[in-house]
Amino acid sequence: MYFASIRVITHDVARLVEFYEQATGVSARWSTPDFAELLMPSCTLAVASSRTVALFGADSAQPAANRTVITEFHVADVDAEYQRLTSLGCEFVQRPTTMPWGNRSLLFRDPDGNLINFFTPVTPDAVRRQSHQVLE
Fold this sequence. Notes:
Layout: E1 5-10, H1 13-24, E2 29-32, E3 35-39, E4 44-49, E5 70-74, H2 78-86, E6 91-98, E7 103-109, E8 115-121, H3 124-129
Parallel strand pairs: 1-4, 5-8
Antiparallel strand pairs: 2-3, 3-4, 6-7, 7-8
């Protein structure tokens, strides 16, 4: 088994896809106007319309209601990403901070309020734990 993707449900797919394209630098692959994917080396970020929820069961997901999941991206330089993201008008929750487990972390929200973490391992132990991840 491997972790394949995470899907974010939204009322405005185009807006959220544009945000994630700008935040990640990855272009989306659109399947329909209600569904797009950002394919990354380690996982796929899917964005789907609230109209697709009925396919899974009425009220099985609610857009802009997440307060428990943090979508995390391993980046080469979290401080450089912070500088780049300031021009996007992101709502920052925490500016770059070195966490006790050795990652330098930047927390911000997407336009629907979902929490995103860009992080860079900075201690030898954190770098060793993330050594299976390859950044371009």
